[in-house]
Amino acid sequence: MMSNSKKRLHKVAIVSNALKTLKEAIIPFIVLFVFGGDKGSKWESIELYIILGVGLLILIYGLISWWRFTYELTDYELRIEQGVFVRNKRYIRFERIQSVDLSEGILQQLFGLVKVKIETAGTSGLQAEAVLTAITKQEASKIETAIRDSKRSSKDLLIEEDGHEQMGEISTPLSKFQLSFKELFIMGITSGGAGVVFSGAMAFFSQFEEYIPYEKVFKGFEKFIASGVMVITVLVLIGLIIAYIVATAGIVLKYAFFTVVKKEDELIITRGLLERRQITIPLKKIQAIRIVENLVRQPLGYATVYLENAAGSVMDQEASKVMIFPLVKKNRIQGLLQEFVPTYQYPNNILPVPKRSVTNYLFQQWVFWIPVCIAIIIFFRPWGFLSLFLLPISGVWAFINYRTAGWFVGNQQLSLRYRTISKHTFLVLKNRIQSIENKGSWFQKRRQLSTLSAFIKLGIGPGTGKVVHMDEQDADIIKAWYLPGRIDQRNEMDV
Asked: Angle CA(411)–CA(265)–CA(164) in degrees, nearest 5?
């Protein structure tokens, strides 16, 4: 019989709760700090007292919320009581729990603790069903064991009710994937995150123009910078190199020790150095597979494979689109899918969109870029005429989009291939598709073309895969395959 005593989180949760509240209030703090008033005014001295006062209130709130939070583990459910002003009681039965995710931030690692996030079938799109921000690893293991034993007992009971003889528990061989350091490094340098870091840093420092004396800092470099455009180019290049190194280091720290283990009917993914995280994904919760090749990795033959998951929330979007293979050679994908998610198959025979759709892809690009070029020429003559080079470039990009697009139906699976900036291959089983939409514009209908989209259910809302400018007859094949009673002679066996 399991103990029914109520427990509190570790006292580290006080600081964690305070930091969470501070994070939610960070935008008002930035507004107050940056736009609060003129330097040297009386308001500036009041600012400090306001910030200190709010910080103290946040810390007190963290203490009270920790004291008011209790949890209790029974034989069949997890009970949680929380709330500072309004007391909320939540009872989560073990059989409803879909996944238990563990993570260790810097605070948790310092004290040997973990953060436990529990997802259920009825989890809201905004947040997890329950979060225990700081408990011991032993207590987390106890919760995982209780949930696993409860589910196993329920499964055995169903077997008995069906009248099947129980042969005892069969141990399932473990499948394991581990990202090597070489692959981790390649993943970092091909991530394309340098631009995000560079632009974010520029935006951040631009907010402190009032407080940092940029004129004095750069005064000694005025003559140096004035010597030519080459110097400015070199400085920008150095900035980009630094941003590139920072972005690469961030990827390496986030995905260090990346491991996927298949155990019975679950996938357990662990990763991270500064923040360690363990995600458990039941195979039955997988809604689709998405294979992504960015512009750098595609020529090198590498791709990233994601699981699109029914769990997750708006506050934790990463749990809805989980990276299962961060960087793999494309020729390994079929074998890995067969080993870890055997219900999905990598399509080797994607059927292309018709040749007559090339002009539609070209029109889709030029309807945007031609007005842009005209505007640049009008306002920046004569240099604006250089913008005309955008037209052949966009034409090449349209042709690349055309060559990428395609589809395939077979083995109860729909495969769609298309490009945004990266190349996407979207794999979804027939019974996971929520709906299929087929629509076409006037320009498409003139050429018997249409856009087909397949929608699935994710924890953060609907997910989608689509192919634009495909043959209307091909779209009809997919609709007939998906909708019962409407399969005609052009069925999946024909394709």
From this structure: 90
Q: What is the DSSP letter of 218?
A: H
**CA-to-CA distance for 292 and 21, rounded, in angstroms?**
35
Classify residue 402 as exposed, middle or buried by CB count within 10 Å of its CB (0-12, 13-18, 19+).
buried
Q: Which one, of 369, 350, 349, lies nearest residue 470 by Cα?
A: 350
Q: How far apart are CA 342 and CA 232, in angstroms?
A: 54
pLDDT at 458: 81
β-partners of residue 268 are 261, 280
Distances (CA, A) of 98 to 71, 114, 177, 351: 19, 19, 23, 36
Compute the distance between CA of residue 326 and CA of residue 318 in angstroms, rounded to an integer. 13
Distance separating alpha carbons of residues 292 and 306, to the nearest angstrom: 8
Give the start-end residues of each E strand in 345-448: 351-352, 406-410, 413-419, 423-429, 435-439
**Residues composing the chain:** 495
Query: Which pTM value belongs to this model?
Result: 0.77
Tell me, what DSSP letter sits at residue 383? G
Query: In whole angstroms, what is the distance from residue 285 CA to residue 306 CA?
Result: 13
Contact between residue 174 and residue 261 where contact means Cβ atoms under 8 Å apart:
yes
The CA-atom distances, in angstroms, between 473 and each of 138, 280, 438, 465, 491 are 59, 41, 11, 19, 11
Average pLDDT, consecutive stretches of 10 residues, N- to C-terminus, the chain (495 residues): 73 85 67 55 64 81 89 87 84 83 87 87 62 90 84 57 42 76 89 55 46 49 53 72 82 91 88 88 90 93 91 64 93 93 91 95 93 92 89 95 94 93 95 91 91 87 89 92 60 37
Neighbours of 353 (CB within 10 A): 25
